Amino acid sequence: MVDVRDVTNRPPRLSDAASLERLPPISKPGRGPWFQAIEPFGFEWNRVALPIRGLPESLAGYRILHLSDFHFRLTWSRAYDQLLARIRENPPHLLLIGGDFVENKRNYVPSLPFVHRLLDGLTYRDGCFGVLGNHDGRIGPAINGRNLTLIDRRRLLLDVAGAKIELIGLPRLGKLIRPDQAFIDSLPPKTRGIPRVVLSHYSDYLHRTPALAPDLFFSGHTHGGQICLPGGIAIQKHTCLPRRLVRGIHRVGETWLIANRGLGYSSMSLRLFCPSEVIEVQLSQAI
Where are the alpha helices (DSSP H) in 57-198? Predict the structure, then answer.
């Protein structure tokens, strides 16, 4: 495990990092199933190398795996066995989970054994961190510390590979889908040479927290639309961001937005033209 330290807060300021406009190619070894019902039975494992301005040389090639939106109900899918086996074959340096572990907002208890089974099977090199989603209610104490560290409303410095990575977990404010502004205001400016990584359930928070100016912003919640038209065009966005940002990896200002389609389903147990997804990001030095 890495050495993790909560960091003393200082006043914020805007970052002056330069914008990188071109999106590197995304490796898609295989397409996920275009139609899924009842439970997930397949997923895409999509890889991309993202250039980061001022990235320390020792972090070039550093791998971050992002999972999100399991929405466990009362079943376990073989797709999750496949997922865990594949992670074991080549564990990422850092594993991030974007929330919505369970589907039932009022009673997580029946689904908890499946969440535990998942968490117990995860493997990684430097750490596994997560935030809660809008479906997770009070599940936090039942999963925090179980092969997972929840970082809602926390800022950490991770000592990895002879360098540091700054990790920020954005919580929502009560039942409102808006960030905790007091927490945002307490965060210090970004430090040059230390990549700033934000983990948030909601992609909306990217434009509501401009002062953070993260290098990487990992999000879920939208499911990529979940039920889409052919070509992956989302019928419902589940975000205030433009429709094109519902899924995929995008350059937004000075930040790489990673909008994960997630693995499970919400409300309707159905995916259409929107395969479940795992995203692996490899850090590279900006030229």
Answer: 78-89, 112-121, 140-143, 181-186
